[in-house]
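Protocol step 4 of 6: structure prediction from sequence.
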Amino acid sequence: MDAAAAAATAAAAGAGAGAAAPAAAPAVAAGAGVAAVAMAATAGAATASPSPPPPPPERLTAPEDIAKASALLAGGQLFRNVSASHLAHLASRMTVRRLAPGEEFVAQGAPSTACYVLASGSASRSRVTWDGQRHVVDPAAYGTTINSLHAVRGDAAFASAACASPDGCTAWVLGREELLDALASRPELGVEMVGSLAAQVRAATKRMRTPLLELPPPALSVPAVACAAAVESYYRSALNALLNARLAGGGAARGSLFPNMHVQVPARVAYIVGFKGLRVVLDREVRPEQHSHPDFVRFATMVAPGVLMTPVSSILEACNAGHANSEPLLRRSTRGILPRCGREILFGVGLNQLSDYFEERARSVTPSPVAANLAGSLTAGVIAGYLSHVPHNLSTYKLMEPSKSYAQLFRKFVDSSVREAAVPAFLSGRGRAAARVGLAVLFPRGVVIRTAQIVGSFAILNGIINGVQAAEQKRISTAMRDAASSEGGGEGREGVTPARSPQTAGLGQE
């Protein structure tokens, strides 16, 4: 029995073990599969080839490209005073970047890592302001380089830049690191770049702003002024004839365009020479700072030429009114002399002080003396012509109709300048009359012709005077230079040849 029981127990244990073995087999097989997949993935990763590195940027090497890049750099604000050798060194460190149409290569507000020049194509630069408005940056302001001023310190870009050419652009790029390396290895390059910026700062700060009452007169050349006045007298005579006919109305007969020129030309020469000469004399003889009210004295000297030249102007005006006033010339010249005096004051201030005032300010905008002189004359002519039109009208009416009072002539001036239909319909009574007077004073009849006359007169007078004086000054400078050159090659006083330093050796020689 005991032997049989032991045998049964052993058989049961064996059966249990046999049942557990099949249950554990799937788990072992699954673990083995995961391990195999992981080993295969590791083996695949180990055998895969690495991605190739990006190609290095293409550098400028061709001599013609170096020369072109140097010229483009020299056209920028930062490199205008940099020597050719340093420009060539910077150009040799530039790389090539090809841009698609419309591709942005500088982003507003992003750190500046490089500056650019365009070898081909064109760029558009724009800046978005705080209100969301996009503004185009003037290309003349930054020259041929883009973002150079911000690249030195890595500042945020002022404006965006994008390729604007339909065929794309080729940009040559000077990285900030390359620029800093060049500055570190070539200290004189930094000095030259600072010199470029200093020249621009000097140009920007050379803004002369002399107060109107303190403007000194330019040097007076009587032949130049006389020549200009003789030419201008014909222009003025024709415009005066047209203006007088305009003021008299469409039915009035127009006089000759050039009447009594044997009187007008010498009178006009004396008139303009008087304005210019009196200004010079008063500036030399009167010392406003020695008086208790210097500005009042300056104002008095400014208006004095107009007052003193009124009699000469009256002769000129009388020459153009012979067809409407048959009085003798001298008697006729006294008609309308009071408003004419006010007009001459405005004319004199415009011709002398205002023209110089605006020319001085125009010189900070344009480097051309001719353009600055023309801009000053045109601006002063518009102001003087507009402000002097009402007194000119009154003096002309009085000259042509001496029997009428100034009150009657002013009413005629208002009636001829403003039609009833031009006054708003809702006004009536005194309001309507005041509106007509205001419109007549602000927009008088014939103001365009009168203003054109003064603008042209100022441009002719100041242009010819400055041109003749500049030619004369050039002639004198040439003569002095030739004299200095001839004296420099000879012996010194008493037969002793003066010692010459190496710096001055060769001066005065061809």
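Step 5 (inspection) to follow. DSSP finds 18 helices and seven strands in the chain.
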